[in-house]
Amino acid sequence: MATSALFASCAKEGYQGGESSLMQSEIVAALDSDSQAVQKLAVEVASAMGIQDGGVGQPLGDRTVSAVIPIQLNGEAIRTAGYSPAAVPVFFAVNYAPGGYSIVSSAHGESSLWAFFPDGQFSPQKMAECPPLCLLMERAVEMSVEKAGPRYPPAHRIGDEDDTIFEPYVEESRNLEMTNERMEPLLPVVWGQGYPYNAKVAPSPAGCVATAMAQVLAYYRKPAKWDWAKLRKHHPKEHSGVNAPEAYSELADLFQDLGQLVDMKYGASVSNADPKLIPPALVGLGFSSGGILRDLDYARVKGELSAGHPVIAGGFSHHEVRSHGIWPFDWEEDLYSGGHAFVLDGWCVFRRRVDVYRKMGGGKRKKERSFCVYKELVHVNMGWDDPWCNGYFYCGLFDTEHMPYPDRPTSGRRPSYEYLLKALEGVRP
């Protein structure tokens, strides 16, 4: 069986935001318990996100909810299975004032945090312009639809078999908190595929593989032939809107060289490359190890990040199988499209404490125990030349080792995960 999979400058515009924003004062009065759950979570996220991306900028803990926008799929608000047409959309983008936004969902009164972004504001137009974000949203939708219902400990049975009494337990969740367990983003720059990066290959985009590689090279300041002090002045992480015209020519040379090393196929609107060519390219640039491509497992990625090594990763939004030939000389070909390469370069952990109570009758209850629910998010540099696209995403969106459902296999084929998510582990300067 043959496989065709190239990371490309993807072009997909499936997700949009609702046409009208629902302001904070309107949420509680107009929407049902799901939207109220989203509103509560949004406020908790604003309070909990007291980190500063790169150590610069206002903590999100100083911000307030300014708008809650339903996120739409092909013009229809996203809804979970079993929801009536009048139900509230599951996914919402929450904008904060003076800046930053998060993506949250709610189903049957249970809300979840999927991503947050320290910079920028959500808008339908911007989301349509960032296909990688659409890809991750699609994955989140699939996971949320199949997500199990609320956690409840099993009823505790008391007494003998002839006189069985059930004492139900209830859970009370505390506010979401951000723990001290986190790593700030490693990449020092926010680069992309347009001008000046593609000046030597215009009008084609520079390519997402070249962009991911260039940002990793900027982190390691390798190879030494490039003037990294000058290059890193263009769109530095701390001030991503700052241009450095003196670096334009060298940036264009860098991206062109990287494109040649990975045999970039340049097109009018799409430039793609085989990710398997990244390791030998890095070795050719003087790295002691170019790493190895493996199915993306977050535990291993976290180990790489904790050791100070950003991880190039990528995935695909579409997969099809094409049959060729005539029996008995027929064969199948796996085709993947809608691919994008990005860099994982940081992480953080949220925590919510849950108290478990036993109902005693007469409106009384007794606290039995407490436990904490943790949620890890990984920072993604999308390579989109805009910090608006760079944010922290729920790590389960990337984990092929523990994804709950693979693609449906055809006869005689091993299943493959929908986006063929891969990570380049073991890159060493």
Uncertain segments: 10-33, 50-60, 74-89, 147-165, 402-417
Class by SSE composition: alpha+beta
Radius of gyration: 24 Å
Number of E-type strands: 21
Order of helices and strands: EEEHHEEEEEHHEEEHHHEEHEHEEEEEEE
CA-based shape: globular
Tell me the major beta sheet. 13 strands, antiparallel
Level of helix content? 10-25%
Instruction: Summarize model confidence as the mean pLDDT.
Output: 75
Strand residues, percent = 25-35%
Q: Could you tell me how far the N terminus lies from the C terminus, measured between alpha carbons in angstroms?
A: 35 Å
Number of helices: 9
What report would you give on this structure?
The protein is 21% helix and 34% strand. It is of the alpha+beta class and 429 residues long. The protein has a domain at 19-147. The longest helix has 16 residues, at 33-48. The protein starts with a strand and ends with a strand. Residues 10-33, 50-60, 74-89, 147-165 and 402-417 have low confidence and may be disordered.
How does the SSE layout of this entry go?
Blueprint: E1 2-5, E2 7-8, E3 15-17, H1 24-30, H2 33-48, E4 64-73, E5 76-77, E6 91-97, E7 101-107, E8 110-117, H3 124-128, H4 131-146, E9 156-158, E10 165-167, E11 169-183, H5 208-220, H6 228-231, H7 248-261, E12 265-266, E13 271-273, H8 278-284, E14 289-295, H9 298-306, E15 311-315, E16 318-324, E17 331-337, E18 340-361, E19 364-381, E20 391-394, E21 422-428
Parallel strand pairs: 1-17
Antiparallel strand pairs: 2-13, 3-4, 4-5, 4-6, 6-7, 7-8, 8-20, 9-10, 11-18, 12-13, 14-21, 15-18, 15-21, 16-17, 18-19, 19-20
